[in-house]
Amino acid sequence: MDRPAPSGLPFMKMHGLGNDFVVIDARAHPVEVRPSLARALADRHRGVGFDQLALIRADAQADARLDFLNADGSPSAACGNATRCIARHLMDETGRDALKLATAHGVLRAERRGALTAVNMGAPGLTWQDIPLAREMDTLELPIDGAPTATGMGNPHCTFFVEDAEAVDLADLGPRIEHDPLFPERTNVQVASLIAPDRLRMRVWERGAGLTLASGSSSCAVAVAAARRGLTGRAVTVILDGGEIAVDWREDGVWMTGPTAHVFSGTLTPEFLGAFA
Questions:
Q1: Are 67 and 59 in contact (CB under 8 A)?
Q2: What's the rounded Cα separation, in Å, for the pair 203 and 214?
Q3: Strand pairing of 156-161 and 188-196?
Q4: Are residues 15 and 73 in the same domain?
Q5: What is the DSSP string of 21-71?
Q6: The model scores a pTM over 0.90
Q7: Residue 175 and residue 113 share a domain
Q8: In the prediction, which pLDDT does 172 show?
Q9: For residue 2, is pLDDT > 50?
Q10: Does 17 share its domain with 115?
Q11: Which of 29, 123, 147, 175 is 20–30 Å from 276 (CA)?
Q12: Tens of pLDDT along 216-226?
């Protein structure tokens, strides 16, 4: 933490379908967040609590730049639900209905769609190098029990298609697959069941965060994997523990559309920040 302000550091608490975030506007308060501070903020008893931390920065090529940290302090190139939440905040702030946000995954387009917010998460990574995997292989069916599908959405994803997503012990499966040697950068893990040709039930274990109520990039990855395997078309509704999100894999990228919530704004105290100065 660099030079905490004497009056503390403002933040916003947001969520998309229960996938929750602490958002710091570093345009007004330039700051670097160390992994130790991110972990302390993520503590739901002694901090604020979040699945991911997002920082909004100024950017010369886009309306803003977003940087993400997981709850364990590790970086993430993509966070779909946080991108939608922040896009909605910036559109409300400016009165605009569309904007572009720079991320480590590229420049992402966002649009207001009535009460919902859509973000184009870009083209999925389908080759072993794009995800990345440890060695060359077919990403459609990995050499892991259950033959899951690997997808890159700026972060790695491993999707198991199962008969009943509710019956899987994801708290056991998730960390084992997250740390499988096949994934040099670890991976997000999903279990998904086909409900209808255009509906999927999905539960998610997020890399660096654990079990979460929802995940935007995971929803995109599951939709892409299902379409590649011929289970669905390219436009589906993904039903998560926290609610439903629409995903549409188009020629220009993978669009996801869903609700967002700005829950409250607060200020991190100088005493809290001082422990990480």
A1: no
A2: 8
A3: parallel
A4: yes
A5: EEEEETTTS-----HHHHHHHH-TTTS---SEEEEEE--SSSSEEEEEEET
A6: yes
A7: no
A8: 98
A9: no
A10: yes
A11: 175
A12: 999 999 999 99
Q: Are residues 51 and 31 in the same domain?
A: yes
Q: What is the H or E stretch that residue 99 is in?
A: strand 98-103
pLDDT attached to residue 6: 59
| E strand or H helix that includes residue 86 | helix 80-94
Q: Is the same domain home to 235 and 264? A: no
Residue 4 lies in a domain: no
Nearest to 179 by CA among 168, 170, 188, 171: 188
Shared domain for 26 and 92, answered yes or no, is yes
Is the per-residue pLDDT at 30 higher than 90? no
Name the β-bridge partners of 265: 12
Number of domains in the chain: 2
**Separation of alpha carbons 84 and 236, rounded Å:** 18
Q: What is the pLDDT of residues 92-147, one digit of tens each?
A: 999 999 999 999 989 999 999 999 999 999 999 999 999 999 999 999 999 999 99
Domain of 180, in residue numbers: 149-251
Whether 127 is in a domain gets the answer: no
34 and 115 together in one domain: yes
**Burial letters for 117-133: b for 16+ Cβ neighbours within 10 Å, e otherwise?**
bbbbbbbbbbebebbbb
- Please name the residue that has the structure tokens 């559309």: 257
Separation between Cα atoms, residue 88 and residue 76, nearest integer Å: 21
Question: Tell me: the pLDDT tens digits for 47-100?
Answer: 999 999 999 999 999 999 999 999 999 999 889 999 999 999 999 999 999 999
Distance CA 125, CA 141 (A): 15
CATH of the domain at 27: 3.10.310.10
Do 234 and 270 lie in one domain? The reply is: no
Residue entry with tokens 């011929």: 230
